[in-house]
Amino acid sequence: MQRRTLIQSAIASLAAGLPALPAFAQGQWPTGKAITYLVPFPAGGTTDVLGRLIGQKLGPVLGTSVVIDNKGGAGGSVGSEIASRAAPDGYTMLGGTISSHAINVSLYPKIGYDPQKSFSPVTLIGTNPVVLVVNQASPYKTLKDVLDASRAKAGGLSSASAGTGTSQHLTLELLAYRSGVKFTHVPYKGSGPAIQDVIGGQVDMMFDTTVVAGPHIQSGKLRAIAVSSSKRLASMPDVPTVAESGLPGLKDFEVLSWQAIFVPAGTPAPVIDRLHTEIRKILAQPDMQDKLKGFGMEPADMTTTQIAAFQKAEVEKWAQVIKAANIKPE
Fold it and tell me: Which DSSP state fits 172?
């Protein structure tokens, strides 16, 4: 009896010194606590739009609310660093992009997180090209017009982006590198304010995703010059590809942006699996498929293992581009 009492006392003492098990370890995730969907860009951009669409449907499925939290800056690096430090408990998700999770690690000397080691992939939402747009009153109607005008202007035409190191910026730099034409890069803290200044005529042009630029092209506020995909888009059949211009150095030009969802590294596998399954179901719904295709996005269907391999290849590809074009953060 005395031995049993001593053992029970030892167990009780040990338990008292241990932290309480998190809810997911007890099979209770989610508990009803709100899930933060961190968007590392300001409101109005592609990542924000997709996050809100997914969050509206995911919350009811999980029996909780999904709160969008915009933390823009440094091409998605600021918000991504914040997310990397969040508790890996299933209550923080991050809308990652080609910029935050493939480009920035090679562009900036230090970003405060490792795009692969600091996160676990959940879902690849889809891929989409960027489209070069100008104000509807602009005299430029073709890519040749743009390149000729930029070549003739001191410093080149001004081109906005959602921030240094974003896919918009890298596409511009790749165009400059391949064509031998200079441009003046004008970085913003997100696509929303950047594209508004193109519409307003404060900036000459911009590469942006079809998610953001598409509605403004349809409304007539912007004119589409060229898309960065290898083939024309079904949603913009009259807009030629950059490669179609036939201009020197641009024959095989192609850039595809992408959107994905990540969680902090260490998040339990059952939580990741549940999120992956539910979000894939949401993205497979006809209305979501229509929205993605309407945005010019190509829906993706990868396992988490495949996403990790895809991301690794993207990190390596953009490292080569940044080095070859000698691209530096501004």
Answer: H
In tens digits, the chain (330 residues) has pLDDT values of 444 444 344 434 434 444 444 444 446 899 989 999 999 998 988 899 999 999 999 999 999 999 999 999 888 999 999 999 999 999 999 999 998 999 999 998 889 999 999 999 999 999 988 999 999 999 999 999 999 999 999 999 999 998 877 888 889 988 998 999 999 999 998 888 999 999 999 999 999 988 789 899 999 999 999 999 989 988 889 999 999 999 999 998 988 889 999 999 999 999 999 999 999 999 999 999 988 887 778 888 899 999 999 999 999 988 988 887 787 776
CB 204 within 8 A of CB 181: no
DSSP 103: I
Cis? peptide before 30, omega within 30° of 0? yes
CB 194 within 8 A of CB 135: no
For 145: left if phi > 0, alpha if psi spans -120 to 50, otherwise beta; the answer is alpha
Distant-in-sequence contacts of 301-305, Cβ < 8 A, 24+ apart: 302/124, 304/120, 304/121, 304/122, 304/272, 304/276
> Residue 248: what are its φ and ψ, rounded to 5°?
-55, 135
120 sits in which H/E element:
strand 119-135
Indicate the pTM of the whole model.
0.74
Tell me the two tokens of residue 251.
Answer: 């024959």
Contact 242, 181 (CB under 8 A): no
Rounded Cα–Cα distance for residues 322 and 6 (Å) = 65
- Fill in the DSSP letter of residue 241: B
**280 DSSP 8-state letter:** H
